[in-house]
Design goal:
It is a single chain. The chain is mainly alpha-helical. The chain has a single domain, classed as Arc Repressor Mutant, subunit A. It is built from five helices and three strands; from the N terminus they run ααβααββα. Strand 2 and strand 3 form a beta hairpin. The protein is elongated and about 65 Å long. The two termini are 29 Å apart.
Length: 120
Amino acid sequence: MSLRTNASVKGIASKNAPLRKSAPIFAALGDETRLRLIAVLCAGGAMSIAQLTTGTDITRQAVTKHLQVLAEAGLVHDIRQGRERLWAFQPAQLDEARRSLDTIAQQWDQALMRLKSAVE
């Protein structure tokens, strides 16, 4: 690898460092069931596992595991209310993911502009 290529790879890696923080968010949202749970929590507010499984063929155990993955990614959190445990959407991490996508979009725009300049 040439010195110039090595320097540009390091530059790209340092620019993408903030994107690494968003990888767990995208991984968590990459599952259809978890994405559906997020949509339900966004629309309905804090809900119990019983409420989240009503009208579905998903077991409470499966929903619990999916909620744990979402919680590890910072997308949901649980709230103790008496003996019940409610789950609520936490939008801050989704905002972080949106900023990461904006960064990627800017990088693509810059790459396309460089390509356009090279072709013309």
